[in-house]
Write a structure and sequence with these properties.
- α2 packs across α3 and α6 packs parallel to α8.
- Strands 1-2-3 form a three-stranded mixed beta sheet.
- It has nine helices and three strands, in the order αβαββααααααα.
- The chain has two domains: 66 residues, Roll (CBS-domain); 161 residues, Tetracycline Repressor, domain 2, CATH 1.10.357.
- 68% of the residues lie in helices and 5% in strands.
- It is mainly alpha-helical and 261 residues long.
């Protein structure tokens, strides 16, 4: 329609056509259309024969479906296509109980760590008061790192070959966050307990836990991607559980060292 009347089809045709195959993942098709601002992309079979097209309208539905699935996975919930109010409550519970059961079992490791350090907790009861603060903060830091990395992997903003760079960046961010929060919590712990050694143990532990949480939150999604799993499976609840176990271990051993016990 816009070519000159004297031009031939061979002069105006695109010879190197960008296409997708029938077996291409729908999320990859959506990324291609988004990357090149296509209105549609041709679909061919294994013999390079045209079998149809995927339009930008289809992509909107695909992106919504994939985003919903990722959000469900990040929350540790099995996704479902049914409307929320049309889904039986038993089905809702069944979709959620799997992850909760896994997390329940793994959380027993935190209890085991606390039991193994029971002697120091009995001698310095004040240490127990700060366990929820430390593991809660560590879990939040890890969840932030994992969310950024998982979203970046899903949108191709972060590539798998940039893993080390991203992990270093997140570890540095965790260190900065830990130092900022560590100063605040050290002062706050001293005000609450009046014990400088306990306050220092809490502050230093928070710095270490923040770095650990950032490393876990940024590293584990890359590992899942490398072995062929969806990075979203390394969801915030799972990372929080890992940080809880290791965070308590770091905190109580740090307190034992500082208090010379």
């Amino acid at each position: 329609m816009v070519a000159q009347p004297s031009q031939t089809i061979g002069e105006i045709m695109v010879r190197e056509v960008l296409y997708v195959q029938t077996g291409t993942d729908q999320e990859e098709v959506a990324r291609i259309i988004q990357r090149y601002d296509f209105l549609a992309v041709p679909v061919v079979d294994t013999e390079q024969r045209l079998v149809g097209i995927v339009t930008v309208d289809d992509v909107i539905d695909i992106l919504e479906q994939e985003t919903t699935e990722d959000i469900y996975t990040l929350g540790g919930v099995q996704s479902g296509a049914d409307n929320y109010f049309q889904t039986n409550l038993v089905t809702v519970a069944r979709r959620r109980v799997v992850w909760l059961s896994v997390l329940l079992i793994t959380n027993t490791a935190t209890s085991a760590v606390i039991r193994s350090q029971q002697d120091i907790l009995q001698q310095v009861v004040a240490l127990a008061a700060f366990i929820p603060l430390l593991i809660g903060t560590g879990g939040n830091v890890g969840a932030q790192s994992s969310t950024v990395v998982i979203r970046g992997l899903n949108t191709d903003e972060i590539r798998i070959d940039e893993g080390l760079r991203v992990i270093r960046r997140e570890a540095t961010a965790g260190l900065i966050l830990g130092l900022m929060l560590g100063v605040v919590v050290t002062v706050w712990a001293y005000v609450l307990q009046g014990n400088l050694a306990v306050a220092i143990a809490v502050g230093i532990s928070l710095v270490a836990i923040s770095v650990l949480a950032s490393l876990a939150g940024s590293t584990l999604p890359f590992l899942f991607q490398l072995v062929g799993f969806d990075p979203a499976l390394m969801s915030a609840p799972f990372i929080t559980t890992v940080v809880d176990v290791l965070g308590v271990l770091i905190y109580l051993n740090m307190a034992r060292f500082i208090l010379n016990m």
